[in-house]
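Lab manual, section 2.4: Encoding a predicted structure.

Procedure: take the sequence of the chain (67 residues), apply the prediction step described in section 2.3, and record the output as structure tokens. A sample record is shown.
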Amino acid sequence: MPGFIDRHEVRRLVDNGAQLVEVLGKKQYEEEHLPGAVNIFLKAMAKKAPEQLDPSKPVIVYCEDTL
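Recorded output:
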């Protein structure tokens, strides 16, 4: 179920097995990303997610916050 969560909830979910997905481009991912995150460009999500993610675990998708 899509929604917004704060960093405390991210930590709790990751500690319980959630997968982190950075959806920005490769350059941004290489410069800085959350520990344990995989990089799947947003436009490639439909193709790459089934190949790289475990469907039995929750997924947290994130990108740069410009606010």
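Check your result against the sample. Residues 7-62 form a domain with the Oxidized Rhodanese; domain 1 fold (CATH 3.40.250.10).
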